[in-house]
Amino acid sequence: AARIIQNMDPTADPCKDFYQYACGGWLNRHVIPETSSRYSIFDILRDELEIILKGVLETSDQGDREAFQKAKILYKSCMNESLIEQRDSLPLLEALRMVGDWPVASADWNKTKEANWSMEEKLSIMNSRFNKRVLIDMFVWNDDRDSSRHIIYIDQPSLGMPSRDYYFNGGNYQRVREAYLQFMITIAKMIREDKNMSKDDSFVQEEMAKVMELETEIAN
C-alpha cells in the first residue's frame, strides 16, 4: 500500500488529470533508460532478477543437479567471447549444411546432392535442433477437450518481422521493411564471402527480394 501511495501524486486533481494523479509519483522518481522504450515495476524486477541469476550461474557447479549444470554450461558458452570470435561463422555454416544449405550461398544448389532429401525431415531438424518453426508450427500441449492428456498441435508460425503490418503498411513499417531486406542481403554477402564464393551483389539482391516476396505472401 505504501508503494502504491508513493507512486501516486495526491496533489493532482484526478478529475482533470487522472494519469498524473495515479502515476505522478512514479514519473517523478524514475527516468526511462535510453536503452528502453518503457520502464515499469516489472522491468525493475527483471533487472534485479538478472543480477541474481548472474550470481547463481557464476558459482561452482559441483554437486549441482543436471538441469543446473546445463544452465551454467550454456551461460559460460555465451560468455566465452574469445572462443565465439575464434569460431566466427563456422556454427552458422554447419547449421546451414544440416538443413540442406542456402541457395543464395551455394554455387550448385540446384543440383541434386541428396537423393533422399525431405522437406519434412529438414523442418523437423529446424524445430528440434534450433527451435525454429518454418512454414508450420508444431508443439505438444494439453488437449483442450481432455486436460488429462497431451496432443500434437499444428499452427501457423511467427513471421520474420513482428506482425503482418510490417509487410504491407507504409511509414515506419516501410522503413523497417527496407532495413529488414538490407539485413538479409548483408548476411547473405557475409556468408558467401566466408565460403570463398565470388562476389555477385545483383544475384544476392534478386534472391533476397524473392525471399521477401515469399514472406509477404505468407504474411498475407
Automatic annotation (TrEMBL):
Signal peptide: none
SUPFAM superfamilies: Metalloproteases ('zincins'), catalytic domain
Gene Ontology BP, a term: protein processing
InterPro entries documented for this protein: Peptidase_M13, Peptidase_M13_dom_2, Peptidase_M13_N
Gene Ontology annotations for the cellular component aspect, listed alphabetically: plasma membrane
Residue span, Peptidase M13 N-terminal domain: 14-220
GO molecular function: metalloendopeptidase activity
Family annotation (Pfam families): Peptidase_M13_N
The protein's name: MMEL1 protein
Species of provenance: Eolophus roseicapilla (Galah cockatoo)
